[in-house]
């Protein structure tokens, strides 16, 4: 039973609005306003607020996700075969254990790869506002003056 408040014309109009491109709908919505900024302005800061992962780290993360997904599938197969009492249960459990070890290694690989990348390429850092400046060195001050054993 159709809704009594919706006429056929209203449904056709809604269908046309639904099929229109987003830019056209946004322009139609902005027609009544005096100042209207495009939707893509102002969202750049939000869209790119977090820097992209470096390529080696992203590659390791994708590899880890795929291996972990495969491990979860094998664990489910092993559990179901064990519950059913099928001969494939024992090899599936062994494969699941092996894949768990490999998945753990791949997760550690992501962490290690990230640490190595940060160590090799450095990070952009600035001293915080609470960081102290180094003491000014006086012209006659020698840093190793008190440690030498010469007479």
Low-pLDDT windows of residues? none
- Terminal residue distance: 108 Å
Average pLDDT metric: 75
H/E order of the elements? HHHHH
Task: Please supply descriptive tags for the structure shown above.
about 150 residues, about 60% helix, mainly alpha
Concise synopsis of the structure shown:
The chain has 151 residues and is mainly α. It has five helices and no strands. 58% of the residues lie in helices and 0% in strands.
Describe the fold and architecture.
The protein is mostly helical. Among the domains are: 8-45, no CATH class; 55-121. The protein contains 5 helices and no strands. The chain has helices at residues 8-19, 22-30, 44-47, 55-84, 89-121. The chain starts with 7 loop residues before the first helix and ends in a 30-residue tail after the last helix.
Helices and strands in order:
Elements: H1 8-19, H2 22-30, H3 44-47, H4 55-84, H5 89-121
Helix pairs in contact: 4-5
